[in-house]
Structures are given as structure tokens and as C-alpha cells.
């Protein structure tokens, strides 16, 4: 059997797994976690979907396996950092604590092997700002910070009242025409935050759209999700950042395995030697 050896990265970022929902592609995720190791693993929010689980309990075995695999990585020496998002904001109560071997942080600054300083956070903190980003931009920093604070506490209150988080996906559905503009605004808001803090870039999730590009002089990275895009952000040992498209990699590997299966009969040992003998002595 050809064992595929896992790729070893310096850092991996995954987010928006939405464990606890039927949308989570847990099998692909398990496959990814099996084949990719790292010194540090960031879980960039919306890992467990607490909002959905409260409405309807959905916890198949594969979702448990994902959690077990991540815990095992932590036990075996991977530094695992969990930065909660809006769907798992129950974990925000535990910021600064450790859950087993997993650190829980509100946000982090990751320094790459090349010395780039990247802000790591989920990104929902900016939802409330984005709708008003144009006029807020004119009114300056203090108000902008206040709007961030307000959005955070507004949604905590909604949570206490048993109401939904101000839903990004609903907002997008209602504003399909403006979805592209919304994504651009989100990217600019996140990149703007990194720039304001004098950092080189940002790594976030939340909008389920993998991306890595320069926005206004800083690097904007979105590690995507495990509901639709099946993607991760990875840093190699020399500090190079890459987006990993696991759906595409998985498809390539399946195609390779199918090709190998169809080639196999040709390499049966008895047949070629028998043929060769026949050819030499016709
Ligand atoms: Mn989110």
C-alpha cells in the first residue's frame, strides 16, 4: 500500500467548519486534517455552530471525529489556537483560558517565518460597520471603534434574548445585487483594521470566500470554509502563504487513484515475462 505522507506546514488556518450543521463537509475535513500537519493550527471561528445546535441537535459521528482529531493534534504537540466567531460565540466567555490543550483567544497576531505580522480574527466584528462604512469613514476613528463595540454588544444582547446573530447570509440573500459590493467592503474593512494597527496583513474567515490578495497596501487573507469552498490557508516553513483548495486536491487524488487502478493489470508479473519468452522464440 502506498501511504500518503502528510504535508507538514509551519501554520494552518481553517474556519467556518460549522460542525453541528448538515452543511459541514466533515469527511473532506477529516481527510484534510489527516493529510496536513502543522506546528500551529488556528481555528478561526464558527467551528461549532452553537446557533444551529440550539435549534436542532445534529451531531453525526464524523463531526465527533473532527473534534477528536483536532484534540489529538493538540496532544501530539501542535499549538492549537481557537479564535471564536459569531456562531460559536459561547466560547468568547472563555477567552484567555485553555480548553484542554487548546488556547482560546479573541484575536492574535501571527508572525510568519518572513517576519510578516498578521492579525488573526474571525471577522464578524465588522458586520455592523460595513453597512455604514462610507459615512463612518468620513467621521473618523473614534466613531468607527464605537460602531465596532456597539455591534459586538448588540449581538450579545440578541444572543441573550435568544435571537439570531444579525445574519450575514440573510443579509446577502436579500441584497444579492449588492453581494459583490458587500464582500469588497468586508475585505476593505478587515484590511483597513490591519493597516490601522500597523500590521502587514490580516487572516480571517466569516464570509465563506477564500481569498489572498493585497488590499490597500496590506495582505488580506481569508481561509474560506468547510461548507462550500473546502479551503484552508497554509504557511510553509519558509514563510510562504498559500490557499489550499481541498476540493480540487481531493478530485486530483481520486483521478490519480482511478488511473492507477486501470493501469494495474498491465503490471501483472507473470504475463509480461510469458509474453517476452514467446516473442524471443516465436
Ligand atoms: Mn461567522
Which structural class do the helices and strands define? alpha/beta
- Could you give me the name of the CATH homologous superfamily? Metallo-dependent phosphatases
**What CATH architecture do you see?**
4-Layer Sandwich
Which regions have little confidence, pLDDT < 50, spanning 5+ residues?
Answer: 274-282
Q: Please report the total strand number as a whole number.
A: 12
Number of helices: 10
The helicity comes to 40-55%
How would a crystallographer describe the biggest sheet?
Answer: 7 strands, mixed
Question: How would you describe the overall organization of this protein?
Answer:
Helices cover 41% and strands 20% of the residues. The longest helix has 20 residues, at 141-160. The protein has helices at residues 26-35, 50-55, 61-75, 127-130, 133-139, 141-160, 168-174, 179-196, 246-263, 270-280, and strands at 7-14, 36-43, 79-82, 98-99, 102-104, 108-111, 117-120, 201-204, 211-215, 218-222, 231-235, 241-245. The model is unreliable at 274-282 (pLDDT under 50). It has a 7-stranded mixed β-sheet. It has a 5-stranded mixed β-sheet with strand order 6-7-8-10-9, covered by helices on one side. The chain binds manganese (II) ion (MN). The site of manganese (II) ion has 8 residues, from loops.
Amino acid at each position: 500500500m502506498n501511504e500518503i505522507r502528510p504535508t507538514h506546514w509551519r501554520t494552518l488556518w481553517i474556519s467556518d467548519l460549522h460542525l453541528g450543521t448538515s452543511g459541514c463537509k466533515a469527511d473532506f475535513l477529516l481527510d484534510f486534517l489527516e493529510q496536513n500537519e502543522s506546528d500551529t493550527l488556528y481555528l478561526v471561528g464558527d467551528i461549532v455552530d452553537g446557533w444551529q445546535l440550539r435549534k436542532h441537535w445534529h451531531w453525526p459521528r464524523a463531526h465527533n471525529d473532527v473534534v477528536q482529531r483536532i484534540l489529538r493534534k493538540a496532544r501530539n504537540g501542535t499549538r492549537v489556537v481557537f479564535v471564536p466567531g459569531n456562531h460559536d460565540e459561547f466560547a468568547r466567555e472563555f477567552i484567555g483560558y485553555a480548553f484542554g490543550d487548546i488556547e482560546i483567544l479573541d484575536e492574535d497576531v501571527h508572525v510568519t517565518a518572513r517576519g510578516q505580522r498578521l492579525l488573526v480574527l474571525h471577522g464578524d466584528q465588522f458586520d455592523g460597520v460595513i453597512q455604514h462604512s462610507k459615512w463612518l469613514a468620513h467621521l473618523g476613528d473614534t466613531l468607527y471603534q464605537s460602531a465596532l463595540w456597539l455591534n459586538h454588544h448588540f449581538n450579545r444582547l440578541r444572543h441573550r434574548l435568544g435571537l439570531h446573530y444579525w445574519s450575514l447570509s440573510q443579509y446577502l440573500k436579500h441584497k444579492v445585487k449588492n453581494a459583490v459590493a458587500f464582500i469588497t467592503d468586508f475585505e476593505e474593512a478587515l484590511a483597513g483594521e490591519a493597516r490601522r494597527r500597523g500590521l502587514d496583513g490580516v487572516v480571517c474567515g466569516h464570509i465563506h470566500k477564500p481569498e489572498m490578495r493585497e488590499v490597500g497596501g496590506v495582505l488580506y487573507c481569508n481561509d474560506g470554509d468547510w461548507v462550500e469552498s473546502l479551503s484552508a490557508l497554509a504557511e510553509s516553513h519558509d514563510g510562504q502563504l498559500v490557499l489550499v483548495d481541498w476540493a480540487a486536491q481531493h478530485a486530483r487524488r481520486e483521478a490519480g487513484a482511478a488511473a492507477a487502478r486501470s493501469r494495474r493489470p498491465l503490471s501483472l508479473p507473470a504475463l509480461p515475462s510469458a509474453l517476452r519468452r514467446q516473442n524471443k522464440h516465436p
